[in-house]
Design goal:
The complex is a heterotrimer. Chain A is α+β, with helices and mostly antiparallel strands. Chain A contains two helices and seven strands. Chains in contact: A-B, B-C.
Chain lengths: 87, 752, 176
């Protein structure tokens, strides 16, 4: 199962848990599973069919550009982060 | 020096003359304002004289009556956009906000906010007509300091902005669009383990990117409905998308032709002029050119955030950090979406912390909408963190480089925002700094001091496309989409040349318009040499595969029997050079065209350490930079001359930020120094030679090991300068800029 | 539109006549009327030096000179300093020394450097920095620009010193 790091701001939904093992082969499946376990998570992570504006998702160190379609491996580590750009 | 393990590159690491160089030293290169399409007319923007107010009325009738005035535009000419979010590759933008920044809707939010536009047959006429447009305002209270803007009783800029805390939305409107919070470990318990704790507060003023070329766009809305835009932009595709979205037309109806660009540093990503020129052109049927004056650049375009940062760090006696806490507020200016995210992610990015807590706030105030500026958000954070590190080193009696070495992040270190680092080169930069001639030399003389500081920037990946075709004379024409601000045509072409085993000069790179190349993200985030370079490498692999097949056709053998070494194709004692083979393409199957599109998922993680010696005049508090060294991990320096140039240029921008640059506002929020005389950027006389040490710890995510290099060098300078000033004067400066009046006041306060 | 004035001048060795309004700057005339766009506008108030040209051999910010002041003068612009197929040594040293990034300030720097070296063929680093202090560059940090001018001075003096990249202070280290 993928290891999902719950942002501090979302731990009110996870009962304080900061790292959770979640099943899923894509980010869409991961977020759906998270939301089943902790209702409200999907609303924080997504806007409609997209990752919420201003949010980025790190999967195994890379910032995914595929949004909810991003592939997740069984041993992946996932973080929800503020989006970054650059000058 | 090159280590034995590294590949013996033929092109990479050399210093060829850049392909666009001759045009740029002879004045022939075509920048946006050099362009004069047939029938062009000139636009001028009417800007708000007040920093906050409601627009009661706009009367354009007098301007419209002037002979030679061809069109007038206001926000009413734009389609109405709901709060639609557009994904721009490098981030997302609320289109309603973007539109309201381009031409104010209902309210003006900063002095210089564009309100209306006029097009006329000459620039002077357009200027005169603009003065005839009468705008009535109802002034509102103004706020320009980030902490004031956060107060409950602060004037509210937008009544529809509510705080978003990682997806949690607050109930009532405020000037704080975003709150970011990271927490790792038991912070309070970790501070309890510290022998020494330092907690300090820091302030920085708004500064501007300061590119010498003002914004310029020319648009022609053709009678067939097609819009062509010639513009100075860091990203032609993002300019196209923003323009199309604001005008609500399909992207295929817009061609953006990027001109040579006279500097950007993050400030030429958002559109200002493109959609306005387009509307004016649609109204008058002629190409319309808009050029900013320098005061419009300062007052109407992106400064980078002014900030307030509080940092607390705890360490044990033997110099191990136990915990960190940071509270950051950055101003976003008139619209949400400042640089607070990366600020929060960078504040502790150089050090391993067992426990840490970070809170960050994006704050609206009556300044131009802030834009990215070279490692956006990182410099303000590093100024605070690296100053506190210096103070910790002093309290612990540990050499400042040694303290950093004891806590430096390395492969596997977990960042406060969560992810762990892959192979990075921070420790190597500290070691190189420690072994540098600069650090090892004594600094003698009174009123002098030496400071060091380190800095980090992510560097992004994102999308790049490229294609190339082989010419019969053995050269290769490369087409890419990254506007070239600092010699990237060459650093990208060199990677194609290396891949094919041909000289850099045998590649002819061209930056195409939005119809001439596949989608390519902005020239920003230190990504071009990394990501577009990766695309060029893949184009090379594609061409090499086809050339191998051609050689096999020629020799009537299986392609698997052909090998290529350094641009020479061989099989069973037969060989042919790339150039010779290029001459035989037409008889072996026709043209060879290579192509690639990439979307690498950065970051490539760039670290640097800076050393500076200063002398402070005890009478005037003027700071003289005596010596400066930049040490940086470039992963692999493709063209070392331009890598050094990035390091030197970033350092000097950072010196300007440290010593002199600031937006000065009066109590009505009007900028008092919107010109280069009073907004004091460094001149040649203000700085010494900038020594550089390029460290190469290859990036595992790039075939040649490239890391971005453009942004990291601006991060460390203000902290390094503050630390040096402390050593010279005994005064710790915690506010930027450390200009003579401010430093003098601090030195005097300390004496009395 | 004001009445236009007839001006006779010499630009890059050629006899030139133009009409301009009294309020038009030399920079406007060069760029918009004569289409010599090598001189750039960065600030239009004499602070950035991107519009530097030589007026009777002296470097001037052409944004601060009126078009009518060109009457009877001899003007040299960036377009006029290469000799047929050969770049001027200052141009060559800027190229070889990577002394430009975005390139918008480059014509101005080259013209200021030319004015300096015409007058003082072997300037000290301090003198170069002082004489170039009226030209702003936001990209390079000036290091490579100053070196390029030093190299051009050597080259113009017929020195056998290596160009551009010969100076100390650039180092590389590799780690794996």
């Amino acid at each position: 199962m993928a290891q999902v790091h719950i942002p501090a701001a979302w731990r009110d939904l996870s009962g304080g848990a900061s790292v959770i093992d979640v099943p899923g082969k894509s980010l869409r499946q991961i977020i759906a599973a998270l939301d089943r376990q902790f209702p409200g998570m999907a609303q924080r992570a997504c806007e409609g069919e997209q990752i919420a504006a201003g949010l980025a998702v790190s999967i195994d160190g890379g910032l995914t550009t595929r949004g909810l379609l991003a592939a997740v491996r069984p041993d992946s580590e996932i973080h929800f982060l503020p989006a970054i750009g650059g000058g | 020096m090159t280590s034995p393990q590294s590949k013996p590159y033929k092109v990479i690491g050399t210093r060829p003359v850049r392909h666009d160089g001759v045009d740029k030293v002879t004045g022939r290169a075509v920048y946006g304002s050099d362009l004069q399409p047939t029938g062009v007319v000139y636009g001028k923007i009417v800007r708000s004289p007040i920093a906050h107010g409601r627009i009661k009325s706009i009367d354009t009738s007098a301007a419209e009556e002037v002979k030679g005035v061809l069109a007038v535009a206001t926000a009413a000419d734009f389609p109405h956009l709901a709060n639609k979010i557009a994904e721009l590759g490098e981030g997302s933008v609320n289109l309603a906000h973007l539109a309201a920044n381009v031409l104010a809707q209902g309210k003006v939010l900063y002095k210089g906010h564009a309100v209306a536009a006029v097009a006329a047959t000459s620039p002077h006429l357009a200027e005169e007509a603009a003065q005839l447009i009468k705008v009535e305002y109802e002034p509102l209270p103004v706020v320009t300091w980030v902490l004031d803007a956060m107060r409950e009783d602060a004037p509210l800029l937008h009544d529809d902005v509510r705080t978003n805390s990682m997806g949690k939305k607050a109930a009532k409107p405020s000037n704080v669009p975003t709150h970011i919070h990271f927490e790792m470990g038991d912070v309070d318990a970790a501070f309890a383990k510290a022998d020494v704790i330092v907690e300090r507060e820091f302030k920085t003023a708004s500064v501007h990117q300061g590119y010498i070329e003002p914004h310029v766009s020319t648009a022609h809305w053709n009678q067939d409905g097609h819009l062509t835009v010639w513009t100075s932009t860091q990203g032609s595709f993002t300019a196209r998308q923003q323009t199309a979205e604001l005008l609500q037309i399909p992207v295929s109806q817009v061609t953006v032709i990027p001109c040579e660009i006279g500097g950007g540093f993050g400030g030429k990503i958002a559109v200002y002029f493109e959609p306005v020129a387009a509307i004016l052109s649609r109204k008058c049927g002629r190409p319309v050119k808009l050029v900013m004056d320098r005061d419009e650049v300062f007052e109407g375009t992106g400064p980078t955030p002014g900030s307030f940062v509080r940092i607390k760090l705890g360490a044990t006696k033997d110099g191990k950090l136990t915990a960190g806490e940071a509270w950051l507020a950055y101003d976003a200016g008139a619209f949400p979406g400042g640089m607070i995210g990366p600020g929060c992610m960078c504040v502790f990015s150089c050090y391993e912390l067992p426990a840490a807590r970070v809170d960050g706030y994006d704050v609206l105030d009556n300044k131009p909408k802030t834009q990215a500026y070279r490692a956006p958000g990182a410099t303000q954070a590093a100024f605070a963190c690296e100053s506190v590190m210096d103070e910790l080193a002093e309290k612990l009696g540990i050499d400042p480089i040694e303290l950093r070495l004891r806590n430096a992040v390395k492969e596997g270190s977990r960042r406060v925002d969560g992810p762990t680092y892959p192979r990075i080169g921070f420790i190597e930069t500290l070691q190189a700094a420690k072994n540098s001639p600069h650090w090892k030399s004594p600094l003698v003389g009174s009123n002098r001091g030496r400071g060091i500081a380190s800095g980090f920037w992510f560097n992004i990946g994102l999308k790049s496309s490229a294609s190339a075709h082989v010419n019969s004379d053995g050269t290769v024409s490369l087409v890419e989409g990254s506007t070239d601000i600092g010699g990237t045509r060459t650093s990208v072409a060199m990677q194609l040349a290396e891949t094919l085993g041909i000289p850099a000069e045998a590649v002819q790179p061209r930056v195409a318009d939005t119809d001439g190349v596949g989608y390519t993200d902005v020239t920003g985030g230190s990504r071009v040499t990394f990501a577009t370079g990766l695309a060029a490498h893949k184009v090379g692999l594609d061409i090499a595969r086809q050339m191998t097949e051609r050689a096999a056709t020629l020799w009537e053998c299986d392609p698997a029997e052909v090998e290529c070494v350094d641009g020479v194709y061989k099989t069973n004692g037969k060989s042919i050079t790339f150039q010779e083979l290029a001459g035989k393409l037409q008889s072996t199957g026709g043209p060879v065209v290579g192509r690639a599109a990439v979307d690498p998922e950065g970051p490539s993680n760039g670290f640097g350490t800076h050393i500076v010696d200063v002398e402070v005049d005890p009478e005037t508090a003027k700071v003289t930079v005596l010596r400066y060294t930049v040490v940086q991990d470039a992963g692999r320096a493709i063209h070392p001359g331009y890598v050094e140039g990035q390091m030197q240029g970033g350092a000097v921008q950072g010196i300007g930020w440290a010593l002199n640059e600031e937006y000065m506002f009066d109590e009505q929020g009007r900028m008092q120094n919107p010109n280069y005389l009073d907004y004091r950027m460094p001149t040649a006389l203000d700085v010494p030679m900038i020594e550089t040490i390029i460290v190469e710890v290859p990036n595992p995510a790039h075939p040649f090991g490239v890391r971005g290099v453009g942004e990291t060098p601006i991060v460390a300078p203000p902290a390094a300068m503050a630390n040096a000033i402390y050593r010279a004067t005994g005064t710790r400066m915690r506010e930027l800029p450390m200009s003579p009046p401010r430093l003098w006041a601090a030195m005097s306060a300390k004496k009395s | 539109m004001g009445q236009r004035i007839h001006v006779t001048t010499e630009i890059n060795g050629e006899h030139v006549e133009f009409l301009c309004e009294a309020r038009q700057s030399l920079l406007e005339v060069l760029r918009d009327t004569l289409r010599l766009t090598g001189a750039k506008e960065g600030c239009n108030n004499g602070n950035c030096g991107a519009c530097t040209v030589l007026l009777d051999g002296e470097p001037v910010d052409s944004c601060l000179v009126l078009g009518v002041e060109a009457e009877g003068a001899s003007i040299t612009t960036i377009e006029g300093i290469a000799q047929q197929a050969h770049l001027h040594p200052i141009q060559q040293c800027f190229l070889e020394g990577a002394a430009l990034q975005c390139g918008i300030c480059t014509p101005g720097f080259i013209m200021s450097a030319k004015a300096l070296l015409d007058r003082d063929p072997q300037p000290s680093e301090e003198t170069i920095r002082f004489q170039l202090a009226g030209n702003l560059c936001r990209c390079t940090g000036y290091d490579k620009i100053v070196r390029a001018v030093q190299d051009a001075a050597s080259r113009l003096a017929g020195s056998s010193k290596n160009p551009a990249t010969s100076k100390t202070s650039q180092a590389r280290a590799t780690a794996h």
